[in-house]
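Before the break, one more example. Copy the sequence into your notebook; we will annotate it together after we see the structure.
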Amino acid sequence: MRILFVGDIHGKPGRRILRDRLPRLRQAHDVGLVIVNGENSAGGAGINAETAQELFAAGADAITGGNHT
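Here is what the structure looks like once it is written out:
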């Protein structure tokens, strides 16, 4: 199984890029599991339920956090 780990999704631009590019990356590289770092996905200041839902809707299977979470 191929695993893709995407580092630091930062704010709305990062969420948009993930949404736009992840489906093609997943297909092109036959990725079975996508893990993203979402600790800055809410405007660079943590993560909230809304941004977590966006990451999952974009195709993430799991979200990691960090010191901003």
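The chain is about 40% helix and 20% strand. The first helix runs from residue 11 to 28. Try to locate both features in your own notes.
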